[in-house]
Structures
1.
Amino acid sequence: MTTKNKPQAKAGTEPRARDADRSQKDILDAALSEFAAHGLGGARMDRIAERAGLNKRLIYYYFESKESLFLAVLERAYENIRSEERQLNLTREEPTEAIRRLIAFTWNYYLAHPEFLTLLNSENLHRARHLKQSKQILTMHSPLIQTLAGVLERGHQAGVFRAGVDPVQLYISIAGLSYFYLGNCHTLSTIFDRDLLGTRALVERLSHMTDLVLGYLVRD
Amino acid sequence: MTTKNKPQAKAGTEPRARDADRSQKDILDAALSEFAAHGLGGARMDRIAERAGLNKRLIYYYFESKESLFLAVLERAYENIRSEERQLNLTREEPTEAIRRLIAFTWNYYLAHPEFLTLLNSENLHRARHLKQSKQILTMHSPLIQTLAGVLERGHQAGVFRAGVDPVQLYISIAGLSYFYLGNCHTLSTIFDRDLLGTRALVERLSHMTDLVLGYLVRD
Amino acid sequence: MTTKNKPQAKAGTEPRARDADRSQKDILDAALSEFAAHGLGGARMDRIAERAGLNKRLIYYYFESKESLFLAVLERAYENIRSEERQLNLTREEPTEAIRRLIAFTWNYYLAHPEFLTLLNSENLHRARHLKQSKQILTMHSPLIQTLAGVLERGHQAGVFRAGVDPVQLYISIAGLSYFYLGNCHTLSTIFDRDLLGTRALVERLSHMTDLVLGYLVRD
Amino acid sequence: MTTKNKPQAKAGTEPRARDADRSQKDILDAALSEFAAHGLGGARMDRIAERAGLNKRLIYYYFESKESLFLAVLERAYENIRSEERQLNLTREEPTEAIRRLIAFTWNYYLAHPEFLTLLNSENLHRARHLKQSKQILTMHSPLIQTLAGVLERGHQAGVFRAGVDPVQLYISIAGLSYFYLGNCHTLSTIFDRDLLGTRALVERLSHMTDLVLGYLVRD
DNA sequence: TATGAATGAGAATTCATTCAT
DNA sequence: TATGAATGAATTCTCATTCAT
């Protein structure tokens, strides 16, 4: 995105068009919704343009093709979750509480951003074809793992956590517990004939996941 | 063009598998691969016909439309996993071992049937639209949950398992731990820059998941 | 083109559709006109379908893409002129008369088939990209050159023609004399402000070309 | 982006070539390449702007539209060849040598300016639509024909050339002999499987053409 | 003079589906 | 049961051109 000083419209007035940054953002927002709702294959450039309130041609002007638009959307989605994760400040937290908060954060983030789940599914369907072309992705995730490794280490030193826990394995487990429940809630609630998204159910799930992970981690 | 000379079964021999059955099976097999590889939106009827070695028109003859073909594929996939699960015979097993085997089974099944994962993702993308039309699905899954409930109960009575574990929650957790790891392995191995499908990695994952679940369940 | 026995309609009745060979021929005819009139870049698949009286999709069914349709058209055009050339039977002709007839044939063929000229121009604009992929082209043209070489040889032995004339050079000259006049007649008649396509002009041109070539060839 | 500091001409020095002129020339140069490489239909205004290192909008500022840009390019191309032809000074030359030099000049000009050939092809494809709108074209070409007529006349009077040769016919023949060979060299070298652009081949062709024309013209 | 942003009308190509046999 | 021929409606992407500054 080109960051030049645009004629910053006064509060309240929509800065209508001729604003490259704004247009690009609108396209990315619309594309996120569309890709999340229909997958890469099912997404329609027409609908993206319409949702963005912009001419279809402009999408190609800023983003080469459907595929590279998809990558741009994906990168922004990852940036977003990792950025929010960073704000958790797990480093300063007491280990048990840190794990509790990481689980809750992951759960709430997926709950608030269901698009993120379907986006990842799409990308996996395509064997991470787009992500593998990304240059920024690699550096984005290691801090998270380092932080988690630190929490586990501190917990162990304090005699609270069991030893030898691989932070990557644990992260995948924590994510997977939320991901599968929320990402597959449509089929799950159909085959188990049970509402999985009611307030009560959500509270229970978070509680179950926390019990599960801490029941495993905490030495007594 | 499939010009295989069928043995034109004489009375008494080989009473099943007329060409019609065979054709339908071929179509379902081809469709499974195609839907799994490209999702519902990305799947191509042409390719399915080609993979099945049959004329495209025939697909419509046996299966109304792309959508109902998808449902047929989905139902068969669920039948398959539930049928294999039944053969686990968890009812007779010692509780801890039963859980251990359920985890291992789920893991190995997903590993052997990656199509199942992408199929479910597709169906969830479409909000279980197809599954909800199915009549047979509901009855298919309750036995599994009942069996698991039994295992948990027996484990609790034996003083081995903790009390108050919801079998549906636990089943979702067990499935999710495998599902997320295997279904998202392309993005995960990209962002964590780590091979998740090597023999060593697979063994470690199964071990981690078993520790996690039993570490939670088992009271000491 | 698949040559199977089609339900050969009775004389007078148009064998309407469902006739693969006929459809392919119609497409090729329409494509020839369109490519000739607008060049490869300017040709429109829509118009070709319309001219052929067939669905656009069918063009792709029979001919992969615009480019391979172009090649198919080109090959057929070459086949056509070389086939007519063969019927000239120059081998049996007296040398001077043979040359005379070759010039006249070339001239009249270009005159009757102006599409051929623009087609070749298009292909040259694209540096013979399509033709180079053709497998049949190479064998198609050598007979012509061999025949011409024979005529020159016989003429020389009879003491009528000069020695050492390269048949390829001569063929290119004969073709070029007609080609440039007819292919560029629009610009030429504009810049010289002179009607080049009137009956009189045509007769004069053929006469001039014949004089030119024979004036050079014939030893006196 | 062309950011060359123009010498901001002081009074008396360098009165011409403001940026405007330079920009127009850049556009024409770029357009010539583009039209020659892709034809009128295949040429892209975007690429012309890029090649010229200027904004696309500027093209429309100076040249109404793609079509009139094409005409401008065409006119400049004709001006160029006629201007060089004039410098041949055939009037003062001995007739045989004059013809020889005209052939060689035409050949070498086409060889050095292959764009000219494809440009003419494009214009003929469009039936000289653009050229017919030009006001300057008509006056541009008659001097050439007059000069050639003079040469033929002098040659005849000297008893060297045959009588009754139409200068327009002869000019078209001379041009055509080079034009077809060079303009169609891609298809010709493909179908005859022979390198037509090697040094040796070029020398032979010029020699052949000269022999052909003089063999016809010169009375012995 | 010069430019980046934006667009409507098309371009080739694709796709699920139906027709006729 | 089986198939090749045919199609209408999209779908991605392109292009000459104009707007606003």
Note: Confidence is low (pLDDT under 50) at residues 1-17 of chain B.
2.
Amino acid sequence: MKHLQTLLLIQAVAQAGSIRKAAEDMNITSSALNRRIQGFEAEFGAPVFERLPRGVRLNPAGELLIQHIRAQSSDLERVRAQVADLSGVRRGRVSISCSQAIQPYFMPSKIAEYRREHPGVTFSVNVRDRDAAEMELRSYNSDLALVFEPRHLAEFDVIMSITQPVYAVMERNHPLAAKDELRLRDCLAYPHVVPPPAIGIRYLLDLAVGRMSQKLAPTIEAESFEFMRHYVQNDQAIGFQFPIGLNVGRDDRLAFKPLSVRDIAPGNLSLLQMKGRTLPVASARFANQLALALADL
Amino acid sequence: MKHLQTLLLIQAVAQAGSIRKAAEDMNITSSALNRRIQGFEAEFGAPVFERLPRGVRLNPAGELLIQHIRAQSSDLERVRAQVADLSGVRRGRVSISCSQAIQPYFMPSKIAEYRREHPGVTFSVNVRDRDAAEMELRSYNSDLALVFEPRHLAEFDVIMSITQPVYAVMERNHPLAAKDELRLRDCLAYPHVVPPPAIGIRYLLDLAVGRMSQKLAPTIEAESFEFMRHYVQNDQAIGFQFPIGLNVGRDDRLAFKPLSVRDIAPGNLSLLQMKGRTLPVASARFANQLALALADL
DNA sequence: CTTTGCGCTTCATTATTTGCAGCGCTACTG
DNA sequence: CAGTAGCGCTGCAAATAATGAAGCGCAAAG
């Protein structure tokens, strides 16, 4: 859209960190870009960038402005999608960031379900830890985020929120696989595979261990739950995961047993959007469907 | 702001109802304006106006767009105000629509109180009935609305809400002035002054009377509470008002007595803003102060 | 101490926007 | 029922604004 051109250029400069680089990215000369920015700052009434010897950087006013720009363009997109919707076409693109646990079973099935009714809608799914997912929302790169243990709840609107107990994951004939419910201390007696601190489940583990005499002594710290699932088949090791990320009852090589909630708090799984934002139709509907599915879990 | 120019022109055309009129308003020629609009529609991907023989009118897509435009410009204003705030200056303008009852005592004292701390902030206060106040919010002409018995609550964010009983207003030595609490039927035995149906208190009266055998037989239907207050000093008449609009205990010519809540529901006084909107700093702070003051009432 | 990369400015050039005039159309008007 | 006024739209020349090429001064990096 033409009327946003200057704003988009500002965004490009903010990202590139220098006017000349941004100019190259946007296929114009640096002089033109330079003057557009000066022009804008003049009519805006305040500088937007700090001039550094090696480039530019947003100043506080610029940070405010860039936020406005993102909201702007995303809202315009929403309007266009809604207008397209008016003329009968059901199109759109839903972008969502989610925790790793959501990715293997839950999200694919829900997306497939949604697309059966709205085949014109496309999706963009990003797996992100909780901090990164929040960043995506803030930058309007994702419409939705479905994450465990979100951090800065006050900055977002919570569309739906449920809790899930932490499960231990182990080989099918692991000594602990006989019990129905496990104590955390029993698990820690075995080698254990835990994710790095940025991941929600690790946060809960750290909290829980903090109240105990025993310490967390991770044999392996691994980002990937996929990796964890395969590793525990070797070393009589224990992994941890939420049930939404497990194929409970339909995996014949692994056993999944819940940890006692006396030992470790259940995880909070929240569906978030940017505060106060009006989502595009497609995203809003998908969020709705997700909320219903979560409620049924 | 230059990058909004086309959008503002569209707004002008929507308001004027014809391109030529809008062109005159905006001091350009109709041909220039015409082509800007055509250009915009082209890149927008859909027409925004219906062409009528005597002018143009927004089509549904246009309605969506105009809403976006209003949100846009108001948000940009907010950013500018916030940037001004950054540079140390406490400036800004708060615009608020309120019910008539709020105007004589409550609003002036709260504004004065606020301005003692923020002398740079200016105010624009409009007295509106509940429907008109909601219109002002929707069109972004007012940041806030403080009204009795709002109608379409779902379209707005409720910042704060309290209830107030209905009071009868009468001459100091009116026969009913002796009692502590009045029954509605006793009031209706005297001539009564009521506002027109658009006003919140009338709505409550109509509701209450609907459950009774007696009918509302207004001697006078008057917009102005001011008028009502003066009139009841003549005809032994009864008027109705919420205590927030009365100088309870400090008026020596009138008596104010609450009606029994068994007869008539208390009025709901709500502080509203446009849904999902980020208010300018000044307005947000003032809303905050109002909410506190209402809670203390 | 040279080099590199930066923001910014000047000036001629190129796009873009504007105003003027006029066309065709439809709904009022006498 | 012709006349007229008001409308949206378009062609064309003039005015205005944005652009690119080149170069200046500056400060950090090598």
Note: The radius of gyration of chain B is 24 Å.
